[in-house]
Design brief:
alpha+beta; Rossmann fold; 3 domains; 6-stranded antiparallel beta sheet; 28 helices; 15% strand
Length: 631
């Protein structure tokens, strides 16, 4: 893993070497083992500066150092990621006459670019973001992997283009005017993240997953090179589907075990991470090192399931308990994320990465399993709601009347609370129902708490239109496929993968995700919907595929997620921190919210009248971002 950055100046100004060094230094956590820069010769127009930080995964000779060039130094690359099929590509390229000077996967991308141009990305199997400067053609090519494992930000202003792996080096360039993008705040309040290509700043963008950006003559052209297609179904017997799913999963794990440094695995004890550990144990000659996180609160503690797998496969198991003092690392996380980010599971993800890094440099995880095989309960809820929609009106009215007598609960996992939440959304149209179940602030609550002037600056329908564009995609032929496609294009790259990348790289740890292998993903997308969600069974085909691999209790356990007891902490050890931060004069004067409404939310939550844990956490992370970046 690495960090990359660069500046292309069409004004002809010589790139400041110290500036590139400064940008590089702000990514040392992404690459503590090596660094390098490339500065184009003076009087060239445009002038170019590239920077690179490296985390050593594969032992390389000096010729593997980045920035790396082709033989005549007309093509230069800075690369972040891992290419798992680079050995096969190397054989193909050498047969075409390309000469190698190293054994790195980076050089394979250089020669692929020489052979195929921007289409080189279509040949890569792995996770990546990279920048290629072609001196002969005066072209900059930026590329990001298919699912968005590796980040890439950019800005373009006054004939200067700048890119980086994180916000801090981009801000250090001096090219970003720290103006808040209010539309991004609106999306953030809805989802808890800011979806690509938007960022918190005006004129700063994220390159979308599966896209390339070509900068030529100071003009930007962005193209999509890959998308999952659920429309081309294949007819397979259940056993054939089981066999091929397991074969591709094993292959995906196998190619991700290549490393010259120690490997381990994140283990929650759920079916996804347990499957990865089981296959690693089968393929490895040594004991697998596993790492788990738990909480003192029983409702959030999954350690017993992880211990079950660790015992089954005789792993070298390590555990860590997260306590409220964990918020001591919030300032660091706020800085690393660089923009407001409200997924509180970034805290345990950071700590499990920190503990893992003490033992290994690479860890495999189960990210993507839910989006691939239909693992979220909202998929069942969406189907059940369709049944509800077809009921007679009088029946629906009777059921709706029950919501007024169902008691509220402060426990987010309380059955009655979940039933009430379901009924509140079941009568809504398909798109609005989905948004209701994934949002943090719905339109009603935003209208209540948001300042009138702020509300006038944003498009209230923006988040709904964003979701509708994926739910109505023609690539999906069924309700389940539409939901899987939507989550794969929104929640997965904008929340889950951002969280894992930032939390792991903050600890100089590489995270690999076998479920996100694009060949496996393409196969599963072609399977019939009932192989993913069959009756009440989520992840049907995966559970069938691994039934002889992992214990039954790990396969059929109820999904807990990676939740954090924020609500309880806000009423206990973190009560003062919450009040002092959100009710400060600075916080209440930002112009986003009505002061009296925020005070009511804080007081009602602390007093146990309401559960506003996720909403208060979202506002808290917005305020902490303001304190760090816009004091």
């Amino acid at each position: 893993m690495c960090g990359i950055c660069g500046i292309i100046d069409y004004n002809g100004n010589t790139i400041d070497k110290e500036l590139i060094n400064k940008m590089n230094s702000l990514m040392v956590h992404r690459g503590p083992d090596d660094e390098g820069i490339y500065i184009s010769k003076q009087r060239l127009k445009p002038s170019v500066g590239l920077g690179h930080r490296r985390l050593k995964i594969i032992e390389l000779s000096e010729s593997g150092h980045q920035p790396m060039s082709n033989e005549d130094e007309t093509v230069w690359i800075v690369f972040n990621g891992e290419i798992y099929n680079y050995h096969d590509l190397r054989v193909e390229l050498e047969n075409k006459g390309h000469n190698y000077k190293s054994r790195s996967d980076t050089e394979t991308i250089v020669h692929l670019y020489e052979e195929y141009g921007a289409d080189c990305v279509r040949h890569l199997r792995g996770m990546f973001s990279f920048a290629i400067w072609d001196k002969k053609k005066d072209i900059l090519l930026l590329a990001r992997d298919r699912t968005g494992k590796k980040p890439l930000l950019y800005t373009h202003k006054n004939d200067i283009f700048c890119f980086a792996s994180e916000f801090m080096p981009l801000l250090a360039s001096g090219l970003v005017k720290r103006e808040v993008n209010y539309a991004a705040i609106n999306y953030y309040l809805t989802f808890g993240y800011i979806p690509a290509p938007l960022t918190i700043y005006n004129n700063v963008f994220k390159l979308l997953p599966a896209h390339v950006l070509i900068l030529r003559n100071n003009k930007i052209n962005i193209e999509n090179y890959w998308q999952l297609d659920y429309s081309k179904k294949i007819k397979l017997s259940e056993q054939d589907a089981i066999d091929e799913t397991l074969r591709l999963l094993e292959e995906s794990v196998k190619i991700r075990l290549h490393s010259d440094v120690p490997l381990g695995a994140f283990l929650s004890g759920g079916i996804d991470s347990s499957t990865i550990v089981a296959l690693m144990s089968k393929l490895s000659s040594k004991k697998v090192k596993t790492f788990s996180i738990g909480f003192e609160e029983d409702d959030y503690n999954e350690l017993k399931y992880a211990k079950n797998i660790a015992k089954r496969f005789d792993t070298e198991h390590n555990e860590f308990i997260v306590r409220p003092k964990a918020l001591e690392i919030l300032p660091l996380l706020v800085e690393r994320f660089g923009e407001p980010f409200a997924d509180s599971s970034c805290i345990p993800t950071y700590y499990v990465s920190q503990q893992t890094k003490k033992h290994v440099t690479v860890a495999l995880g189960g990210d993507g399993g839910d989006e691939l095989f239909a693992g979220y309960e909202r998929y069942q809820a969406m189907i059940l709601a369709e049944t509800y929609q077809r009921m007679p009106l009088i029946t629906k009215r009777l059921i709706r009347s029950l919501t007024t007598i169902l008691p509220d609960s402060l426990n987010q996992r309380n059955g009655l609370r979940r039933a009430k939440r379901f009924l509140d959304a079941a009568a809504m149209p398909f798109q609005k129902r989905y948004l209701k179940w994934v949002c943090i602030f719905d339109d009603k609550l935003k209208q209540e708490i948001c300042d009138d002037k702020f509300s006038q600056l944003v498009d209230e329908a923006g988040p709904l239109n964003f979701i509708e564009s994926f739910l109505s995609c023609r690539n999906s032929t069924s309700l389940i496929d539409s939901l899987l496609f939507t989550d794969t294009m929104t929640y997965l790259p904008n929340d889950l993968l951002v969280k894992v990348d930032i939390a792991s790289m903050a600890n100089s740890l590489e995270s690999r995700s076998p479920f996100l292998d694009h060949i496996l993903m393409e196969f599963v997308a072609k399977l019939a919907p009932e192989y993913k969600l069959k009756a009440r069974v989520k992840k049907y085909i995966l559970k069938k595929a691994v039934k002889n691999l992992i214990p039954k209790e790990n396969i059929h356990r109820r999904k807990m997620g990676f939740g954090v007891p924020i609500g309880k902490w806000f009423r206990g050890e973190l009560k003062s921190f919450l009040s002092q931060t959100l009710l400060s004069r600075a916080s209440l004067s930002r112009g986003y919210f009505k002061s009296d409404k925020i005070k009511n939310m804080v007081n009602q939550h602390i007093d146990g009248q309401k559960d506003y844990a996720s909403q208060l956490w979202t506002i808290l992370m917005l305020e902490l971002w303001h304190q760090r970046f816009l004091p």
